[in-house]
Amino acid sequence: MHHVFLIDPLENLNIKKDSSLMMAATFKEQGIKVSLLFEKDFFLLNKNLPEYNVYQFDAEFEDHSFYLKKFITTTDSKLLMTKDVTIHLRLDPPFDTRYLRILWLLDQLHIRGVTITNNAKGVLTHNEKLFAYEHHSSMETYVGSSLSGFKSFVKNLDAHDLIIKPLDLFQGIGVEKVSKYDVQLEEKFVAKVVEHKGAIVVQAFNPKVTEGEIRSLYFDGVELGSILKVPKKGEFLANIAQGASYSATELSPTVQEACEEISLLLKRYGVRFVAFDILGDSISEVNITCPGLLVEVSSAYKKNLALEILKHF
Fold first, then answer.
1. 140-205, CATH topology level
2. Suppose 120 and one of 77, 85, 106, 135 were both cysteines; which one would form an S-S bond, judging by CB atoms 3.0 to 4.6 Å apart?
3. DSSP assignment of 109-144
4. Does domain 208-310 have CATH number 3.40.50.2300?
């Protein structure tokens, strides 16, 4: 089996802590055939299997760590997309028209026998936020661009503060905390709709976020590990890239059951790698486009969890 990681340009990644690069480097250390594929070299042929320009690399981990201190491309070669190839879809959102086109092309490769992880059609049909909101444990949520619908939702919501965020971004980008009683609330809602060109998400602000948000990683329905991310003092975003601390944690039996249920359901659609965001007892997001924080969860557990993923291939 030849593993090919379809990733964003290296200059766009935080190489030290990138989950995709950690996985690729770990696979290579285990003697697995592994290459990188960039979007600029990705295409589809309707009559023949494509032969991609893929890249080899040199990588080195920091001493006694899962963070990378070196990752550079070296040589390139041609690789025919046959049934012994697995493409790891590791492109970051936003889930825009460009992302949609890539999923369409990947699905055509899947039809021709190439394994895609996570499966393109599975990613296409399961919005990371909406899918979480389907579960009975989810928070009461508004999704849309209707001002009248928004006003009605807020009027009946028992909360002082609200969270307004995009439907299709990541890493806390575009998340805003506003007061329910802000005299400019309606204007802010409309501005957010215009900024993100359509439906947005509105929820009550949960003050428990200051105590931390959980990121839990699953592969093929099996929990790899979970961490509690605690925001910086005075902040509400539990984003490690923005200074949140983290430590290993255990899921409550109720949350663990919900995560396993959802992960096993997604596996039926070829969505094997899932990262859950959990606030209190509610799953707030089911990350499937490019599940991250593998480096941080591995560090918290003092165990290279990419090796656990490799066992599933």
1. Dna Ligase; domain 1 (3.30.1490)
2. 106
3. HHHTT-EEES-HHHHHT--TTHHHHTSTTSPPEEEE
4. no
